[in-house]
Design goal:
InterPro entries: NAD(P)-bd_dom_sf (IPR036291). There is one protein chain. The chain is of the alpha+beta class and about 40 residues long. It has one domain. The protein is built from one helix and two strands. It has one helix at about 20-25, and strands at about 10-15, 35. Strands 1-2 form a two-stranded parallel sheet. Strand 1, helix 1 (about 20-25) and strand 2 form a beta-alpha-beta unit. It is globular, with a radius of gyration of 10 Å.
Length: about 40
């Protein structure tokens, strides 16, 4: 599945490890604005 996220915004929660961290790494390549939050 391919979704074009070029120029879009993304909010990722739980971005410090696991699936959230993997999503941040991938989004960093295409998304214009990226916000990450760590769940405490």
């Amino acid at each position: 599945m391919h979704i074009d996220l070029t120029g879009k915004k993304a909010l990722v929660t739980g971005a410090s490890r696991g699936l959230g961290r993997a999503m941040v790494r991938r989004f960093r390549q295409t998304v214009q604005t990226l916000r990450r939050f760590r769940m405490l």
